[in-house]
Design a protein that fits this description.
The protein has 82 residues and is mainly alpha-helical. 50% of the residues lie in helices and 0% in strands.
Length: 82
């Protein structure tokens, strides 16, 4: 087994960009980022995903969150129609 590796002729592989994503630099307050990271760890999601979700909600301030009552009403209506 080799103990040393020669990378003198190595080439960097292609960087695959995520579709519909943009790489940006943004400065966030540390306490804000800490909360998103903690919530992400609890939910098993990435903190950037949670930030995206929060920004999407901010874009649609008039959209009401789905409540249990609304969800039950919709399910009843769908079951009745079936």
């Amino acid at each position: 087994m080799e103990t040393e590796h020669d990378f003198s002729n190595a080439k960097r592989g292609a960087v695959i960009s995520a579709s519909n994503k943009s790489r940006i630099t943004i400065h966030l307050d540390s306490d804000i980022l800490d909360v998103f990271r903690a919530n992400a760890a609890k939910e098993g999601k990435g903190y950037q995903t949670l930030i995206n979700d929060a920004l999407r909600q901010a874009m649609m301030p008039h959209a009401e969150p789905v409540t249990e009552e609304t969800l039950r009403r919709v399910i009843r209506e769908e079951l009745k129609a079936a």
